[in-house]
Each structure stands twice: as structure tokens, then as C-alpha cells.
């Protein structure tokens, strides 16, 4: 009997030692992006028999944010999740986001100084609050100018490099081919959203908020730079630019617009929409008063509610996700940016650049990348600015009325949060 118990205990001990550590990863990557992410997860699981990462598709970003906030209140958080920096900021206030410094700096499982600095600086900064690292970059993107190369060649135009050249090209590329009084091809297209307003505002040297030396946020939207941006958009709207709320890869593919600005994440959709219809390329966003380019995308955060062994396993996956080979593979397959400089030295990235030299264009802009304020109330501020932009573009408010209203509403939102 004693011998049997010894054998049984040995079997149980071995079983416990072989048990996999489960890491639950919530994300919002659907379609082809989701398939690529699952491939990466499967590859990690194969290489780490003691860890099982389960990638759980929650839905779009709005659904993921709602589920995270609900889980923060009621419990049931995953081990790790995709998150925009303003989501992270809101969750930091609740004390449930794991600080990653101890993992990054760990001599056994961490990253060396060279490896950490191998991540593009703008991405590192976007993951850091003061001196605390709360995230690692994941699906990062930057805005570029998408161009119908056939349309430009037909008009004898070069790709615009300045805002003035962009406006001129938009005018010259706008065509009523059949002379029926309806525009068949707009020279440009933009979305009536906060995102596109921010793109032009950054280029024009303006901002919605600025952080002062005292750490307080100052509302700076009601500025000459904002007025110039709104007037620029109004000058183009309907006459030389197609304006809509939704994405523009469809109208671009159909030849309804010759140029538009969007993030590199639109590349697969632009490619599919344009295939067999016209050639296209992308180029740096045209310069205005600055070269500042809006930077977008989510990071991966870890939750402090996880068990110690789950956190350690999650960190292994997070390191894997940002390793040069994996981030290069992710970038090549999805159009997002590789998050490590050394990823550009991998065979898969070099093959991409050899086939398509324009693939390096987004990386040229990274030194000029700017990102949103890392505050929890940013989603509410974005909503305010989005409403203002729509109201001005569609004649519900004048430029002055819109900016004054947005300024007052943003101040109220900041005061409510004690910022």
C-alpha cells in the first residue's frame, strides 16, 4: 500500500510539473490580421510546451474596450490584452495594470539595454508613463499618402511633397470625364473624423492639448493652426475632395479618388480594392509647417490580477511578439510597422523591400511620429473634437463657433477628471 501511494504521488507530481501555464490574450484583430496573429500564437505554443496562449477575439476596438472596463469592475480580466494608451491610462488609475520594469530589466528573462533601445523610440515613449513601462508595442501604424499612380501619370503630376502641392494636385486631378456635371474622380479624399483632423493639425504644428512644465494639461485646440486646418478642409470639401466618415480604400480602388491619407494598416485593403484596376503606391505625408506625423495603433498590457506564474509566461509571449523575426513577419503579413529596428535586417523584411522598395516609406517617418496624450479621458476628448469637425464641415457651426465650443467642452472634461 505504501509503495502504491509513493507511485501515485510521483505520478501526481509529474503531472503537476507538466501542467501548462495558461495565458489568455484578448484582442481585436479580425480577418486576415486575426489569422496572422493566430499563426504567431500557434508558433509560440509549439516552441513553449509549458505555456498555452489562448488568443480570444473580442470584436472591434469598441467592444474590446467595453469588455476590459467591465472586467476591471466586475472581475474576470485576461492575463494580457491589446490596449490603446488612453485605455491603459484609465486602467492604470484602477491599479490593475502590471508595471513591466522588473521584467524588462530582469538579467535572466528581460531585455538588454540594446534590445530595449532597438524598439523605435516613439513606440517606447508611447508605452511609458514617467519612468514606468506599462506596455510593449504591437500593431503600430503611421499615416502615409496613398496615390493612384495611373491617375498622376495621366495628369503629368508628381507625388505631392508639401501641403501646397497636395492642394494643387487635388484640384488638377478632379475630373468630370463625361461632362455630365458630376465629378467622376476627386483629386483627394478625407474622412470627416477626429483622426484626419489630427493628422493635418500635427503637420501644421498644432495640438489639441499640451502638457505644461507643471504637469497640467492646457487646451490648445482653439488656435490659428486649427483654424487653418479646418479652412483647408473646407476649401477642398465637395469641390476637389470626397468626404465621408468611413474608410476610403473602396472609393480609391474604384477610381473615385486619386489620393488619400490613411495609416499603413489600410495597405491590404487598398491592394485588394485596386487590384486589376490601377496602380498605386504610398509616399510620406506632405509637409506643412512640420513633418510631424500622427502615430497610431495599440500595445499589449499585462494585468496585475494574474498569478505570478501566469505573468512570467505572459512576459515570455510579449517578448516573443516583439522579437525581430516575429514583428517582421507580422509587419509583412499585415502592413503594420515592425516595432524593432533590427527587424529590418531579417530575411523576410529584406525580401519585401526588394520586391517593393516603397515598404520602407513608413519607417522614414518614424523619427517625426507623434502620439495622443496618455490620459484616460482622451476617448471623451476625441469624441468632442470629432463632433466639432463634423459640425464645421457640414455647416452646423462656423470655424470660430466650433473651436470655441470644443475648447469649452474639453476644459470641462479635464476638470471632471481633475486634470
UniProtKB/TrEMBL annotation:
Gene3D superfamilies: Periplasmic binding protein-like II (3.40.190.10). Its main location: other. It comes from the Bacteria. It is found in: Cell envelope. CDD domains: PBP2_UgpB (cd14748). Keywords: Signal, Transport. Pfam families: SBP_bac_8 (PF13416). One of its GO terms (cellular component) is cell envelope. SUPFAM superfamilies: Periplasmic binding protein-like II. Belongs to the bacterial solute-binding protein 1 family. PANTHER family: ARABINOSE-BINDING PROTEIN-RELATED (PTHR43649), SN-GLYCEROL-3-PHOSPHATE-BINDING PERIPLASMIC PROTEIN UGPB (PTHR43649:SF31). This is ABC transporter substrate-binding protein. It comes from Pseudothermotoga hypogea.
Amino acid at each position: 500500500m505504501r509503495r502504491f501511494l509513493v507511485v501515485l504521488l510521483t505520478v501526481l507530481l509529474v503531472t503537476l510539473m507538466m501542467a501548462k501555464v495558461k495565458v489568455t490574450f484578448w484582442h481585436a484583430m479580425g480577418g486576415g490580421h486575426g489569422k496572422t496573429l493566430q499563426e504567431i500564437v500557434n508558433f509560440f505554443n509549439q516552441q513553449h510546451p509549458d505555456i498555452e496562449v489562448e488568443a480570444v477575439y473580442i470584436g472591434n476596438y469598441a467592444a474590446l474596450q467595453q469588455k476590459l472596463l467591465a472586467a476591471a469592475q466586475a472581475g474576470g480580466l485576461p492575463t494580457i490584452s491589446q490596449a490603446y494608451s488612453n485605455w491603459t491610462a484609465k486602467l492604470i488609475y484602477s491599479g490593475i495594470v502590471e508595471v513591466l520594469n522588473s521584467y524588462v530589466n530582469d538579467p535572466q528573462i528581460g531585455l538588454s539595454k540594446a534590445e530595449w533601445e532597438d524598439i523605435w523610440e516613439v513606440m517606447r515613449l508611447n508605452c511609458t508613463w514617467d519612468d514606468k513601462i506599462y506596455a510593449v508595442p504591437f500593431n503600430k501604424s503611421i499615416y502615409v499618402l496613398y496615390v493612384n499612380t495611373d491617375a498622376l501619370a495621366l495628369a503629368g503630376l508628381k507625388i505631392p511633397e508639401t501641403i501646397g502641392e497636395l492642394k494643387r494636385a487635388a484640384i488638377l486631378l478632379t475630373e468630370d470625364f463625361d461632362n455630365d456635371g458630376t465629378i467622376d474622380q476627386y483629386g483627394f479624399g478625407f474622412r470627416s473624423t477626429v483622426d484626419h483632423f489630427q493628422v493635418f493639425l500635427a503637420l501644421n504644428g498644432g495640438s489639441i492639448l499640451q502638457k505644461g512644465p507643471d504637469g497640467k494639461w492646457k487646451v490648445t485646440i482653439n488656435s490659428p493652426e486649427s483654424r487653418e486646418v479646418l479652412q483647408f478642409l473646407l476649401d477642398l470639401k465637395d469641390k476637389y475632395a470626397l468626404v465621408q466618415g468611413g474608410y476610403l480604400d473602396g472609393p480609391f480602388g474604384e477610381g473615385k479618388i486619386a489620393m488619400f491619407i490613411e495609416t499603413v494598416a489600410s495597405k491590404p485593403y487598398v491592394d485588394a480594392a485596386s487590384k486589376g484596376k490601377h496602380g498605386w503606391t504610398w509616399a510620406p505625408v506632405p509637409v506643412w509647417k512640420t513633418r510631424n506625423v500622427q502615430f497610431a495603433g495599440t500595445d499589449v498590457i499585462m494585468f496585475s490580477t494574474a498569478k505570478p506564474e501566469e505573468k512570467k509566461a505572459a512576459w515570455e509571449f510579449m517578448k516573443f511578439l516583439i522579437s525581430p523575426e516575429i514583428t517582421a513577419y507580422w509587419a509583412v503579413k499585415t502592413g503594420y510597422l515592425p516595432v524593432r529596428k533590427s527587424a529590418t535586417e531579417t530575411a523576410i523584411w529584406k525580401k519585401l523591400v526588394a520586391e517593393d522598395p516603397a515598404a520602407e516609406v513608413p519607417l522614414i517617418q518614424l523619427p517625426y511620429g507623434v502620439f495622443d496624450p496618455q490620459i484616460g479621458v482622451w476617448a471623451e476628448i476625441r469624441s468632442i473634437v470629432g463632433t466639432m469637425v463634423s459640425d464645421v464641415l457640414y455647416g452646423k457651426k462656423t470655424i470660430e463657433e466650433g473651436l470655441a465650443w470644443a475648447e469649452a467642452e474639453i476644459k470641462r472634461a479635464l476638470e471632471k477628471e481633475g486634470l
